[in-house]
Amino acid sequence: MLVATETFRYPRRFKAMTAVSGVVLAALAVMLLTWLETGPVRHTELFVAIILTISVCLAWCVTMFRRADDEVVLDDSSIAYRVPGRSTVILSWPEVTGVRARDLLQRLDLSDVTGTRRIVLAYQMENFGRLRLIIRERTTPPATAGPPRRVFARSPGSMLLSLHWPLIFVLVSAWYWRQGGSPYGVLFCVAWGLWTLLAPPWRVRLRDDAVAVDWLGWSRRIPYTDIVAVRIRDLKGIPDKETTGGVATVMIETVRGGVIKLAEFKEGSFALYRALDEAWRRGGPPA
């Protein structure tokens, strides 16, 4: 329930933290480029990958630093996005016909009746879970020409992106092995990569009487009567880290106390949560 007018902002330390992170990344990039003057790089591909990673992170810091003073104001009739020095963007709730979660970019996109993206909400905002809940209550999914979606899947890109840290450590361990080190580091990192790929569910199917959750290699069927709740939360590796919004995760809680976590699906966490929650409350997906 919306209480009069509610305002959502970025955390108080967010601007300072993005500024410090940007300065550190810029200094690191300058140091690496200066290092080129001392002699040739032995592993050019690794050096280029590091520079590209730093550049992307630095661009993110600059973008979020510029957004750190933005505000979102909600009331019973509309949502407003305020940017200092610019005109305020206001959408009435009936105008919001499209809501899409772009989880890899950590943002929620709101579209108006023309289909043009008008408001972008970052997961880094304070109390973002409350903001997302209000948007879900105040908006309705757009009408589709065909039958409602019953299958949700992770995209190959998101599955491969989750392997970035294991892949980096595999390269480092392989280099260390070639220098005469132990091969166990390579084996550990390969096992880590396989676990990262196989552990999370990759597909969810809404059947008439149950939810089917598929992993790579096996599947589990959960009757709607066995589900206690369907929730959505932003899970963080470091709970108090303010510069990251966490991973938007849809969670299915069962009567046996188990929790199934679903993240990084192609259709977005918002659409998956809305479809699962409605199917559970109905006792099955809409026909």
Could you spell the SSE succession in H and E letters?
EHHEEEEEEHEHHHEEEEEEH
Question: What is the CATH topology descriptor of the largest domain?
Answer: PH-domain like
Radius of gyration: 22 Å
Q: What's the β-strand tally? A: 14
Architecture of the largest domain, according to CATH? Roll
Number of domains: 4
What share of residues are in beta strands? 25-35%
CATH superfamily of the largest domain: Pleckstrin-homology domain (PH domain)/Phosphotyrosine-binding domain (PTB)
Q: Spatial order of the strands in the main sheet?
A: 1-2-3-4
CATH class type of the largest domain: Mainly Beta
Flag low-confidence runs: none
Quickly give the structural class.
Answer: alpha+beta
**Mean of the pLDDT scores?**
82
Report the major sheet. Answer: 4 strands, antiparallel
- Through-space gap between termini: 29 Å
Q: Give the helix proportion (percent range).
A: 25-40%
Number of helices: 7
Account of the protein in words:
The chain has 287 residues and is an alpha+beta fold. It folds into four domains: 6-67; 80-138, no CATH class; 163-197, no CATH class; 202-282, PH-domain like (Roll). Helix content is 37%, strand content 26%. The protein is built from seven helices and 14 strands. The chain has a four-stranded antiparallel beta sheet with strand order 1-2-3-4, with no helix packed on it. The protein has a four-stranded antiparallel beta sheet with strand order 8-9-10-11, with helices on one face. The protein has a three-stranded antiparallel beta sheet with strand order 5-6-7.
